[in-house]
Amino acid sequence: MKRSGGLVDAAGKPAGTAVPLVDAAGVPLGGVKEPVHITEDIDAVLRSRGGQSSMKPTTKPPTKPTAMKPPMKSGSDAMLNVYDAKEGDRIEVCPEACMLVQEIVMWLEETKGSALFIDYGNDYASQNSIRGIKNHQFVSYLQEPGEVDITADVDFQALRKVVENSKSASVKYHGPIPQGYFLCGLGIEERVRQMAETVEDDAKVDDIIKSAERLVNKDQMGEVYKVCCLTTGGQPTGFEGEEQFCCVVCLKGGTSPVSSCRRN
User: Fold this and answer.
1) Does Manganese appear among the keywords (predicted)?
2) Residue-level pLDDT at 108
3) What does the pLDDT read at residue 36?
């Protein structure tokens, strides 16, 4: 913001005013001192509607010294430390996500445990995934400020690099793997079978199966959603074994629509 007159001008406009998007493709990465583009800021959305931010910290960062690097001082530090972009490249960045992951690594380093992330995205930086969603439909993210959910794909590679750069001796990064692999590894088929056995209404059984199939089918949520885990323990459950999609439709003897179903 401090180095971009365009962003400063945009920030001063009334909520809902259309402003030109800032193209930072020609900015040398070495000269970037502050975030160039932020895809989502819930606090800003709340304030633009005339309300007060409800985002308040509930806990303090760990105070116990660790052997890790000191916390990143700003989002731009996080961006420059984890992205392999060269001058002229166009990628989406989310410094806040990198800073959040580093804080979680610090917590795990001190308290031990695990952190599980499930979201849509890829193991690389996207170029133009920002989009708006309203009533389960894609719309312009500039439409109806405060009424449209603004979202973008998660860059899981960047999150992994944050963990690696932390030099933590105990926190390990696992994944990402497709949500379908993860749920099948956890035994979703058996869980669906148990639930179906307790229901006598065939329509409810079908609803259970269809709901589970939506989560694991690679043509629905099973592949586009990814799962990663930060843990101080060993291999987390769901991340070991065969990388195959299961198919809960098979539980009723149906033909699987999932080409990689282990029963095909």
Assistant:
1) no
2) 95
3) 35
Tell me, yes or no, whether 136 lies in a domain: yes
Cα–Cα distance, 206 to 199 (Å, whole number): 10
Q: Tell me the average confidence (pLDDT) per consecutive run of 10 residues in the chain, 264 residues long.
A: 49 53 41 38 36 43 47 53 80 88 93 94 91 92 90 94 91 94 90 89 90 91 94 88 61 45 45
Can you read off the two tokens belonging to residue 36?
């160039």
- For residue 176, whether the previous peptide bond is cis, meaning omega lies within 30 degrees of 0, is yes
Q: What angle do CA 155, 156, 162 make, to 5 degrees?
A: 100
Task: Give the HSE-up count for residue 229: Cα atoms under 13 Å, Cβ half-sphere.
Answer: 17
CATH number of the domain to which 179 belongs: 3.40.50.12710
Residue 27 exposure: Cα atoms within 13 Å on the Cβ side: 16
Tell me which residue range forms the domain holding 170: 91-250
Burial (0-12, 13-18, 19+ Cβ within 10 Å), 21: exposed
Helices (H) and strands (E) in the chain, counts: 8, 7
The total of structural domains in the chain comes to 1
